[in-house]
Write a structure and sequence with these properties.
single chain; 78 residues; alpha+beta; Glutaredoxin; 3 helices; 4 strands; 35% helix; globular; Thioredoxin-like_sf; Glutaredoxin-like; Glutaredoxin family protein
Length: 78
């Protein structure tokens, strides 16, 4: 995967699916930032029922759960 990507994982605490998404990012060796949607009301409204969501900052595209390692790699352009 390209190493110069800026990736964000939108999540919240006690979210089992968010933990699974983070595990997939780690398995793919993708550096990423985590943003807790509970810290921002507008993010909570935007992503509340959609998390976990992986966002590629460069293109502003998003990958919504559910996804697997193969779908993640394709999304990131591997």
């Amino acid at each position: 995967m390209p190493s110069n990507l800026s990736v964000i994982l939108y999540h919240t605490d006690a979210c089992h699916l968010c933990e699974l998404a983070a595990d997939l990012l780690n398995q793919a060796n993708v550096p990423y930032s985590m943003i807790d949607i509970c810290d921002d009301q507008s993010l909570a409204e935007q992503y509340g029922i959609r998390i976990p969501v992986v966002k590629l900052v460069e293109t502003q595209t998003e990958l919504n759960w559910p996804f697997d390692l193969e779908a993640l790699a394709e999304f990131l352009g591997a």
